[in-house]
Fold this protein.
Amino acid sequence: MTSRVYVLAQFKPKAGKEAELFEILKALEPDSYREEGCIQYMLTRQIDHPSASRNEYPIVFNEIWEDADCWAAHGRRKQIQHFFETQVKAEASLVEDAIVTAYSDEGYNYDEPIFE
């Protein structure tokens, strides 16, 4: 069991704005990797695959943070706050909607077999 926090930050771009939004999000990666407690901060795009369904949120950050405090510190960074103010909340933003969810592996016993 760890105290790690696993985050999915999903973005639904406004019509015709996916490529522009992807580039703006991509610019957030390098500095985020330098933050204390950042284990993974990977920007991904949805792909077509027969084993996966599609949704309206084609751009997703897959994040892993050492703990909840490190993730909270990330959210307080001026660069992250500026992105949400200008690209998510503002009327002239590139984002139609965003969903940020956090998960923990707390309570999972790694000594128990997954399959019997």
User: Anything to note?
Assistant: The mean pLDDT is 92.
